[in-house]
Write a structure and sequence with these properties.
This protein is of the alpha+beta class and 419 residues long. Helices cover 41% and strands 17% of the residues. The protein has 15 helices and eleven strands. The strands form two sheets. It has an eight-stranded mixed beta sheet. A three-stranded antiparallel beta sheet has the order 9-11-10. Helix 1 runs antiparallel to helix 5, helix 3 crosses helix 4 and helix 12 packs antiparallel against helix 15. The model has no long low-confidence stretch (mean pLDDT 92).
């Protein structure tokens, strides 16, 4: 087995100005990483939510004044601003000259969080990785009013006699979905930060998907296609798969442990029913009299995992209507960023996104919460038919994406044009 490739890197200490105690992180990134990738790493390391504009501004190592931002997303970008994805760190920082840089990273031009950048020195790092070597304090909360607003929130939450205590506790619990008595502004978990940076690096620089990864992600789909080839699967008079097929699916797909029902009737066994219905929705299977048979598209894909991967990724990236498109993009963002809203708020977030998009019912009314829930359920059911979360067991249960699942959803996102 080959040793991981080591590449030149720069170690940077990044501190949020005027915070007391100082909030800081020490990051190691490849020298050829871009400012856009540095931005993503800072967002991840401080647990920012990438909800606002940013810029890196100051003078580079040659003394040239630079303003670097996401030009495409900032209509008001200053004249001469450079696109962040086109500027590499080695242009800005001389890793051989440790010390405070004149470049600063500014995030959220309303709250105005200024991050000072200090060059620690040169080092080596495994190719396509980012590492945090140290830090202190929890990252601030979004939209908390900047350094002094956040400091006031921390004081108010920690002091039951503070006049704003109740209001600040309510606000904090709303935006963080945490109980206020568990909020610790001094907390810093290096291992957790590096776990998130590892996931970020996989999103920024995904490796090629392997055959084994394809077969794992597509396992349930491949099973149904192979079982239905060449003569189809028998159905009951009510149009469900026969119990013997249901039992075999549950056993061979290793779903019995996670699904506690004892019935072998398909309409009572959600995993089998949902996958079968979704494959019909994807036009890979169809009912023909008393059998479930392959469609022409399904027949072309039997025993061809790479083609199945492309087919399903294309289907997910081509929703039937605008509402599904909005929800698919949202769900992809939540999974890939690891920032799902609390389960009880997801339908509200989706409803807001649909209405902000200008979608309406046929009578001109705004999209109600029930429609948002139905659209979320449709996308959720499609994701459930794939092994995205690192286990063969049925269901998500809030687990993190596996490496293979990450690659698949990144592929879908790329096809949607959101990368």
């Amino acid at each position: 087995m080959e040793s991981p490739t080591q590449v030149p890197a720069v170690e940077l200490r990044i501190s949020i100005s005027e915070t007391d105690p100082l909030i800081w992180r020490q990051l190691v990134l490849p020298e050829n990483a871009t400012v856009a990738e540095l931005h993503a790493a800072i967002q991840c390391a401080f647990d920012w939510k990438n909800a606002h504009l940013y810029a890196v501004a100051g003078h580079d190592q040659a003394g040239k004044k630079r303003i670097i931002t996401r030009v495409a997303e900032d209509d008001d970008a200053p004249e001469g601003a450079e696109e962040a994805s086109g500027v590499e760190l080695r242009e800005l920082f001389d890793s051989g000259k440790p010390g405070k840089s004149s470049l600063e990273y500014d995030y959220d031009f309303g709250d105005n969080w200024t991050h000072e950048i200090e060059v620690v020195g040169p080092t080596l790092i495994q190719e396509s990785t980012i590492t945090c070597t140290g830090g202190a304090m929890r990252g601030p909360l979004e939209d908390s009013g900047g350094v002094y607003g956040y400091a006031n929130i921390v004081r108010a939450v920690g002091d039951t006699k503070h006049p704003e205590h109740d209001d600040m506790v309510g606000w904090l619990e709303w935006v963080t979905s945490e109980r206020a008595d568990r909020f610790d502004p001094t907390a810093f978990d290096l291992e957790a930060v590096n776990d998130e940076l590892n996931r970020l690096a996989q999103r920024l620089w995904p490796s090629e998907v392997t055959g084994d990864e394809m077969e794992f992600v597509l396992g349930p789909v491949l099973w149904f296609l192979e079982e239905a080839h060449p003569d189809g699967l028998p159905l009951t008079s009510a149009g469900y798969l026969k119990p013997i097929i249901v039992k075999r699916a549950m056993t061979e797909l290793e779903w019995n442990e996670a699904w506690h029902g004892s019935s072998s009737t398909e309409n009572h066994v959600a995993p089998v029913r949902i996958v079968r219905e979704q494959l019909q929705e994807w036009k890979l299977l169809r009912k023909n009299k008393d059998r479930l048979v392959l469609t022409p598209a399904g027949r072309k894909l039997v025993n061809k995992p790479a083609m199945v991967w492309d087919y399903i990724a294309d289907r997910l990236a081509s929703p039937d209507h605008v509402g599904l498109d909005v929800v698919t993009r949202l769900k992809l963002h939540w999974e890939l960023s690891g920032s799902r809203p609390p389960w009880n708020l997801r339908a509200q977030v989706i409803q807001l996104a649909l209405n902000e998009r200008g979608l309406q019912l046929t009578n001109g009314a705004e999209i109600p919460i029930e429609v948002a829930r139905e659209l979320e359920r449709d996308v959720y059911r499609a994701f459930l038919c794939l092994r995205l979360w690192g286990s063969e067991k049925w269901g998500i249960d809030e687990r993190e994406l596996s490496d293979a699942g990450l690659k698949f959803l990144l592929d879908v996102q790329r096809r949607l044009g959101d990368d």
